[in-house]
Amino acid sequence: MSNMWDIRWKDYYQILQVHPTARQEVIKAAYERLARTHHPDVNQEPSAAKRMVDINEAFEVLGNLNNRRLYHPEWLRKRRESNNRQAPPRTSIHHETYEHPETPVRPTDSKSRIPAWGKWVIGLTIIFFGVLLIIIFNSVLSSTPDIPTTTPSPAPVRLPTGTYLVKNLTGGWGELEIDNGLDLDAVAVLSRPEEPKVSLTAVYIRATDSHTIRGIIDGVYILYFKIGEDWDDGSKKFMGKEVYQRFEEEFDFETLPDQYTIWEITLNPVVGGTADTESLSEDEFPVID
What are the phi and psi torsion angles at 117 (to 5°)? Predict the structure, then answer.
């Protein structure tokens, strides 16, 4: 990639306040809106000129489709590096053992003796209380109601991340990286705008996991996803907490002799994100078969 852009320090998508999946007309509209606000002719603040330089530089890259194709893979690499999280420190446990002080042994009196009649009294007392305890115990058992045994509920069914329910998009070069930061499992579905009910690709992604769909052929697609728990493979539905959604923007994949398209999206809302989704009914969701 050319050295004319310092992508190590500048996020052009953030500067223009657009999502990385934004179409070219959206980027142009964002540039014109920011230029009307920060151009030195209308904004006399000292920082406006510097801000306008960054805006022009960002639009020079993102406003030109060829420049954007060169910039976007480097932006993805930088994004992945910044998202690496350090493992939390392990919890330490401190344990010490203390010895009890020795208990002094009381000396025995070899001269003390129990008379014979005393032994008979002690024996009869022990037998009496033993019989009494047995009677009480049996009475308690006979009066205790039977407690019904409960069968534990089976664990919710979950497929492994990357399990394809439909896979009809192969042979291309396009890639779509999907990050499911939600606390529910998801099924992501790609379809074409002209046939939105036909699933071309459907893949299972567990909660807090990610997956990359590869081999996408050139074209424009709509991305649907549904989330929930306890997957039923017969009906291809989640049996609990199922919600249906769709991204409002379309995803355009184009392959050139030395370039191909990579999209990266998150199913969960993130700070600074600009992609919008809309809720759907089950009837509006593509058929998975």
Answer: -65, -30
